[in-house]
Structures are given as C-alpha cells and as structure tokens.
Amino acid sequence: MNGAQMDGAFNTYWQQPTPSQQHLDSIRQALDATLNPRISNDVRQQALQHLEQLKAQPDAPHYGFTLADDWKQNDAVRYYGLQLLEYAVRYKWSEYGEAQIEQLRTWIKCLAGSLREREDPVFLRNKIAQLWVEVAKRCWGEEWMDMDAQLVSLWEKPMSEKGTANKVFVLYVLETLSEDIINNEDAVAGLRMEVLGASLNEIIIPQGLYEEHAKTRGDRREVRCGETGWLARVCGFFSDCVKQARLSGQPELVQSMSLCAVKALNGLRPTMAWISLKATVEVSCVDCLFLPYHTNDVELQTAATETLYALLGRPYNTHWHEAWSSLMQQALHPDRVAMFRHAFDRTASRPGEDDAKYILQKKMSELLSVLADAVSQHTDLAAGNKLELPAFFDLLLYVLQSKSLVVSIPVLHSWSKMMAVEEGSIIDIVYQALGTLVQTCSERLLRYEALPSETEDEVIQFLDEDFDTVPERHAFLGNYRRYCVSIIQAIGRSRPLEALQHVLEQMRNMLQNGPYTGGRGFNTERYSKNSLSVLQFDAQFNVVSSALRGFSQWCLDTAALGHDDPIFMKAEGDKVSAETALQEWSYSIINFHVDDPEVAAMVLQLLVLILRTIKPAPTFVLHVVQHLLTMRLYDNPAHTAFSDAVKAFEGLRVLELQKLAMVFSNELLEVYQELEPRIDVLVQKHKDDPRLVWGYKGFLFMIIHRATGIDHQMRMSRLQQMLTPVYEAWQDEGLNSSVGSLQAFCAALGLGNIAEFYKAYRFDQIQDWSVHQLDEAGQARQNEVKEKNDQLPLRMTKSMLAATTEKLEADSEEFETACALWSNVIPLVLPNLLQMLRHAQAYHNMANWSQLPDELQAVIRRTLQDRFWQSGISSESKEEFYARISGSKASYEGFASVVRGTMRNIREQGYHIIYLMTKFDERFYGLPELAEPLAEALFADAEALSANHLHPIINLTTGLVQRCPPHHRARFLPPLLTRLFTKLDGKISSEWETIGAASARDAREDEELGDEMRMESVLRQLTYSMVSFVPFLLEFDRQQPTSQGSNGVQAPAKPTLSDLVLSDPTVLEPLILFCTHALRMRDTRCCVTICKVFRSIVPLFVSSNAPAPQVREFICTEVLKACITSINEPYFADMQKDLAALIAQILLLYSPLTNTPRDVLLSLPDMSASKVDKALSKMGKAQSERQQRALVLELLEGVRGVSIYEAGKIARETPKNKGKSGLQQQYMEVEQRPAIENGEEAGLEGVAGLFGDA
C-alpha cells in the first residue's frame, strides 16, 4: 500500500481485504485477455464476463481501492480498481449505509491525496477526479460539508512538493462539477439540483459577491472554505502561469506553465456560462483572459478565446446591464482591438498549412462577431468616446475579407445586422465601409460549389479543408450568400443611387466585354452552364437583383414621408433619377446581343424585375415586352448541354411574360391585337412542346382576365373561348373509356402490351440497359408513349388553371370571373382525373402484374426504379449524372425512363390540378361525395410508390387541409387523413425495417451500399415530412389569423382542426399509431418532434369522456413502452432528455387515473414495486421538470443502454471537422431536404415546390 494514504482508509465496517496473489493474477490475466488482439473472442468474452461479475460482489469496493492505490500494479489493473469503485458509487450507492458511504468518501479522498505528477498517467488522475465528482453529486452540501476545504487543502499543497498534479486535479473537479450540475442534463445532479447549485455558486463566487449573497441565503449550512472563492483563486493561478510562461527562460517550465494555464481555462470555461457577471467584473476576468495575447502560444490563445466567447457570448439581460457593459467595454478597449489585429495577422496560414492557427482564427472571428453584435444592438457602449470604433470596424472588414469563408462568415453575419443600426456615429463608420462591403459581397456571391475542386483558388481550397460532405458545404454557402445578399440589399436601401449606378455599370461592362457571344469566344460545343464566366455573371446578376430589391424598399420608405417633410422633395427627385437611369440602362442592354442561354435568361429576368420595380410608362413596358418576344437563340441539338439550356431559356421566357401580364395587363391589352399573332407564331414554332404552347396561351388568358378596361360580357366570351379546348378534352368519349380500367388506361398510353414488348426485346436477359440501344421500331414505340402522354389534357388544364388563379385575391372581381369560368368545369374534370391518378398509382402495384412470369415481373419492377442523383451521396457529380442520363435516351434504360416518367407526370400534374382547384373554395370543397373518391385516388396504392414519390402526396394533403373551409372539415378531411396516416405509417415503418435488415447484413459492394445510403436518405426526408405534418395539423388554427366575432373578440374558427383530429377516432387512432412507431425510427430529428407532439396532447386525455380513456390506456402501454425501449438503445442517447420528459409526463398525469403505467414499469427486469412507488412519489413532489427527468433516468438506470454523457465519450472517427464550434455548425446546417434530382425528364416540375404560391 502507499504511504500517502489518509488515516481511516479502512474502518471497522469493512475490513481491509488481503487479496491473494492468485486472485490478483486472475484479474491481471483477465485484463490482458481483453486487450490482447491475439486472444480468441471466446476467451475474451469469458474474461470480460469475469471482470463484470467482480463488480457486483459485496467486496468489490475493497478490491477496487486496494488495486487503485497500489503503485506496484500496472496502470490497467489500477484503472480497473477505479472502475470497481465507480460501479459501487454509481449503482450501489442507495444500498449502502452511512458508514459505507463515509468509507467510500474516505477512499476517494485518499486516492486524491496520493496523486503523483510524473508517475500517474493522466487518464488515472482524471478517473479519480470523476469519482470525486460522482460522490459529490450524491452527498455534497448535506452529508459531505467539508468538500471545499479538502479541495483547498489539495490546491494549497506546494508545487515543489506535488508538482502540478493537485492543481490540475482540482481544476478538473471544478470543471466537471460545473458541467454536470449546471450545464448538462445529468440525472444524478438533477435530483439534488437546488442543494448542488447553491453550493457550487457559493464556493465559486469572489469575496465581495459572497458577502452580499450570505445575507440572503438563510440558514443553509456553510460549504465554503476561505474568503477567496474559486473564480478568483483560479484566475490568479492562471495569471501566474501565463506570467511564468512568458518570462521563464526554461523550456520545460514554459511548457508546464502553459499546460497549467490551458487547464485553468478549461476549468473556467463551463463556469463562464452561468456565473454572475458581477463576479467576473469583481475578479477582472476579461483583463485576465487577454493575458495570452501577450504571448505567441497559439494553443493558449485558443483556449482563452473560447473562454472569452463563453463569457461574452451569453444572452443579454437588462438586469445585468451595468456589469455586461463593463465587460464589453473592457474587451473593446483600443489596446485589445490592436491585440486581436496582431494575433489575426500572426496566425495567417495557407489552406492545410497549420491547423492550430486556423482554428484560432475561426475562434477569434466568432468572438469578434459577438463584440460587433453587442455594439450594433447596444449603441450606448460607444457613448463618451470610450472606444475607438473606427479601428474595431477596420478589423471587422479585415476579417471579413479572409480567404476562408468559415473564418469570414461570423463577421459577415454581424455586418448584415449592422446595416440596420440607426445610431449616427455607427452609420457614419458603416458608410465608410460600403465600398469594401459591396466589393467583397459581390465577389462572394459566386456559386463556389459549382466550381471544380481542383480550381486554383484559396477560397475553394479552404472549403475543401472545412467540409467533408457536399450537403454541408452547399448549406454553408447558401447561408453565406444569403448574408451577402442582405448586405447589398441594405446598401441599395440606404444609398440607392450610388449602389445602382455602381452595380449596373459593372454588369454592362460584363455584357459588353464578356465571352457571351460567338465573336468573343462563346462555343456551343464546349458549353457548360457552370463555366467560370457564367458563374461570374450569375453572381453579378444576384448583386443587381439585391440592389433593386433594396431600391424598392427605399421607395416604400420615402412614400411614407409626409409631403411637408424636407426630405420628401429630395427623395422624389432621387427616385425620378434612379428610375430614369434604370430605363436608360435597360434600353442600352437590349441592344447587346447574347448567345449564352444562361446569360440571356438572366438579362431577361433582370429586365422584368426592373419593370416590376419602377412601374414605368406604357411605352417602355411595351418596348421590353417586344424585346422578350423577339429575343432569339439558335438551338443546336447536336450539342446537348447547349440545347438543354436553350429549352430552359424558352421556358423561362414564358414565365417572365406571365409575370408581366399580372402587373401590366392594362398596358398589354392596348396592344393585344399585335400581341396575339406574335404569340400564335411562337405557339406554332413550339407546337411539339405543350409546356410552352399552353404557357403562351396562359399569357394571353391572363391579360384578358386581369385587365380592367374590358366589358364583362366580352371578357367572359373571350375567356370561355380560350378554355374551350379544356372543356372539350375532358368530355371526350375516348378519354372516358380510356380511364375505365388499368388495362384500358395502359392501352391509351401505348403501354397495352408492354410485357410482350419487354419479352420481344429481351429486357429480362440484358444486364446493363443503359448501354443497349433500341432499334428503330423500339424508338418509335418510345415516341408513341411520349406523344400519347402529351395528348392527355393534364398540361393544358394545369396551365390554364395556374394562369387563372395566380395571385388571385378572394372576393375580387377577377376571382368571381374565375369561379364563373371553372365552376362547371371542375365537376367534369374530377371523375376522370381521379381515375387517372388511381391508375398511375396502380401501375406500380406489383399485384397488378402477378399474371406475368417471374422474369417479366422483375423487368416491370426494375422499370419502375428511379434513377436519381443525391447531393453528398452519389459518387458522380450532378453534371456527370445528367450527361449519363441524356446520353442514354435511346437505350433500354431510356425506354424505362419514359414509362415511369409518364406515370410520374400524370400523378404530379394531377396533384397540381387538384391543388389549384382548392383555390375555388366552395366550388371544390362543396362538391358532394368528393372526399372518398379523392382519398381512394390518392392513397389506394400509395404503399406501392417509392419513398421519393410520396412527398407530393403529403404536400397535396397539406394544401387540401390548409384551404378547407372550417364548415367542410368534418365531412371532407377525415377520409383523407385516415388514409394518409394508415398508408404512410405502413410504408415508412416497413422501409425502416428494410433499412435495419440491410444494416445488419455483412459488408456490401460499394454500389449496393450507395443505393442503401440513398434509400435511407430519401426515407429520412419522407419520415420528417410526415412527422412534421402532425404538429401542422394540431397547431394549424393557432397559427392562422383569427376571425372577429360580433362582440369584437377574435375567436378561432370552429371546429378547430385539432378538435377534429383529436375527437374523431377514425383520424386519431392512425395518427397516434404512426407517432408511436415514429418514436422507434432511428432519426433523431423526427423522434424529438414526435416527443413534443405527445407532450402537447398527453394532457388532453385526462378526462373520463370518450375517447380519452381508450387513448390514455394506449399511451400508457404502447407509447410508454416505445419510449422505454428507445431510451434503452445507444442510438437514442442524445434524445434521453426528450424521452425522459415524455415518460415523466405520462407517469405524472396518468398514474393517478390508471395503474397501467405502474404495471408497465413493474414488467421491466429488476424493477421492484417499492422502487417504482418511491420514484412516483418523488416525481409528484419534484419542483422542476429537470428533477422529474432525473427521477425517470434514475428509475430506468438499469434499463438504459448508455447514458447521454457516456455515449458522448465513445470514441468516434471524426473526419476533418477542424475546430468546428456550435456557431460554425449553425452556419453548416444541412437543409431539411438535401437535393434529390430525378434524372428522368429535367423539364418536369416536382410537386414539392408547387404549393409555395398558395
């Protein structure tokens, strides 16, 4: 044994064990077996089992202390001894009496007192500190009153005697206490939160604040030792360490002191998140934390910067304004700003050159962002010329221009907020920075993700260093550009004339000199929409668009001025000047010829945006419209990328013309006689593309519909004439007969004998469909399917409905006209449309192909498998994927693509038509007997569709719910909602089971693994869409504007949607069943959302009125079991807080009403009735939700798989992730739906984006 152990290491209750050499040898051998890679797995498992069994033996703590305190043992044996003690503390504590607990405390203190700096490895010393904290969490402040005195005693041991071991030990204890008691969701600490929180605060705060605190703490017993307090004690120690590291000439001492200083900062950092700001002012924390900037130690500076961020980045509270202001002014002192500038210069490095310096730059940028936000939100900080703001703002600009966008973005975000500040002195400084801001933001609007990674650009190289996944990178760049756009927009709003003049001149120069025409190097053969020249123009286009939006806001600002305001006349003059300049610029660029389709499209969009912004005279409008109609690009089908871009340009031209028809219908009506023949020419030119044909017809329709200077009867006559093809198409006898059955439907689409076609062309015998080409007859069959798809009346109906309803205001004259036009058409369209949707789904149901031989069923199944590119998962780039798809159009895969594309096209256009019909309110929802056939069409075979095809159904159902008038809800919505939850619950649950089975299999080929990753990613998106639909239903009415009653009081519509959902068993049952299954789906975001849903509805079922008792019993059994099962799995470790809160709520609210929750708990292994009853009793008396959660976690301690904080300690491979803080992760959040690109037909719109115009 060690001579350093404390007296009383063994008392009369537990005798000192005298383990035999044989016993010790068996432990060593077992430990060796677990660590030796050459030992067989069976032997290793036996050894582990032996070691685990030892922990549960009554004498385990004897052996634990004996082994841990014996310096003769090797480190593994001593560490195992500590594990034995840890097991006793964590799992046996409640079984011990006072004497045993006192003995455990004595052993832990003894181990702490015998630490050796050089001989004891860090992991052993840290484990002893963790044991100290585990004991403290269980008895400090009640049984253990002298803990602080013992820590002070350890701390004050001379370094000449103990080295730094005791200091580092105490710092680690303080750090862990602060983390577990205050910052983390620690279950044990949560049970004694009030005592532990008060005790920790008392020993940390400095003397002055403690004296104030002592007056109000009541009769609570003293836990503090000495006058100083740990905050002042640690800060003083830190200052001494930095001073010695700076001044000492001994390298070994410098290294030791620097390490101690870092450890001190680690101890301080978690305390900074909660300590009173007055305490930090009293101790001069900011002065102390800036000391490392006097050194060249990058690691020390990084730790200091993180600690400063923890302190200064805390949420502002008016109660602490004086202390907060003092801290901020200290940090913004001119000398400190200069230190930052010097440190930032000194840590400059090239990509991949020095990770430590690069991490420090990121941390400093975050801290500067906090200081900048403080200045912008609390301009009183700069009062009295205490700060040199110009130097600080120069530093912000300097950091903004860093080649690393990750370093730059926190400051960029702060600049975007700074633009809204109205305090004079700050406006003046910001004005000086406008030129640099515009230049930097304009350059950074480049779509870097579209550039090849081998590009010789430092920005790209830093991005490669910072991001491992494409979705993360895309999301980050999207956020970066958003801040740039907001800054340019703000500049356009504050200085419209200068901003517009500058950015428009830059664009004119690009059009005049850029390689966008054949004469200046444009080549259709080598065309790429992601060439650097196109991306640069795209960036400038976004700059000009942002400046125009800013100008538009400025116009609204000036319009609000009174005519007697002295600024009004100047503003009016400036407005006229700006509008004149915009018109002149537009006239000038109309004369520029452009061959590049992408650039031409952006010019077109910009001209339309200018028209919509300035609302000019009719002559200018008509001139621009004439230019839009006559802009001509010459297609070259031999060059696929260029040809596709030309087609995209033509589609955009139609959309932009429709935007003008919405705003300038009266002006366009004046020249309608000239427009109509020109549109007819374009219709004839593009007659093979129904999208363009009906887009142009919709343009004319919108003019007649929206213009005011036209007689009502004449308007109705013209519009009805335009809609005649739609009326006639849906009444066609051939269409009626073609939707009578799936067989007839397939025949009408040219797919009648598709199985025979597959057999004749040996689809079942060919492995790679993409390289096997169709013969002439096969291509003819493919074209027949395309043509018959185009002949369906879906495109014309959707286009004319969209033209009718776009931005249509209810109760307007245009709305009444639209209702008159369509009210008789909707009942004609719906029966056949619903049958089409039914068959387009049924085509995917393999039960409808069961008569075919197995090999042809396999061909059908393969035909229906989508090809899609997914950001971050697909191994090829998006361009390569589309090139491969485009190159296989005449192949067997191309034929399969046409078949599945036809069915998808019918479904998605049908969904869009139904959604557009909802805009007619009563004319749609008032139709009798619509709900059931609509539900049948949408959901009968929904489970046969792949996951990526189910999003549109959820989106359509969302639209149907949103627009349903309250008085129709009870009749219309239940059939839809019942089918939605039933079908998608089954589909999603089965897909998760498939994913689980695939994960359990052995390693797969890369291609198979990639398919599984794509499948899982799509499934996660679908699950989240469906999970998000639940709170949408339950919270819908609360988020809607409420109607005003006769008494002037606003009341929500009755019945509310949540009332309907929660009271109708046909909806409630499948909804709760889906939510219960979602608790077991391995997607943290979805599970957290569902926990919140359950917590919102659990209180609603405490009554005795039906269906509350039945629902309550279901929640008490199935939901409670699902929560307990999930809390038992390591995957859900990060969710234990949410799951425990839900379990606590169920137990608290339902246990008084039913014994079911108690019975479920008693069914768990090793769960006694007394333990459950004790926990339920404590839970009822708990003062906070955290205590309730802690009691649940304590109760389920033996059931849980891995605690949150144990799970966090499991070593994981961390890819590059260099110094990513929480703030940086915020800028890198992946969009909720990572981009999935269907490769079948690029021109088809996905329904996911169709409902934004509601």
From TrEMBL:
| All copies of domain Importin N-terminal, residue ranges | 49-103
Q: Which domain of life is it from?
A: Eukaryota
Under SUPFAM superfamilies, the record lists: ARM repeat
Q: Name one GO molecular function term.
A: small GTPase binding
Q: One GO CC annotation, please?
A: cytoplasm
- Stretches assigned to the Exportin-5 C-terminal domain: 356-1202
Which InterPro entries does the UniProt entry name for this protein? ARM-like (IPR011989), ARM-type_fold (IPR016024), Exportin-5_C (IPR045478), Importin-beta_N (IPR001494), XPO1/5 (IPR045065)
**Gene Ontology BP, a term:** protein export from nucleus
| Gene3D superfamilies (alphabetical) | Leucine-rich Repeat Variant (1.25.10.10)
The UniProt similarity line reads: Belongs to the exportin family.
What is the protein's given name? Importin N-terminal domain-containing protein
What species was this sequence derived from? Oleoguttula mirabilis
The organism that produces this protein has a lineage beginning with: Eukaryota, Fungi, Dikarya, Ascomycota, Pezizomycotina
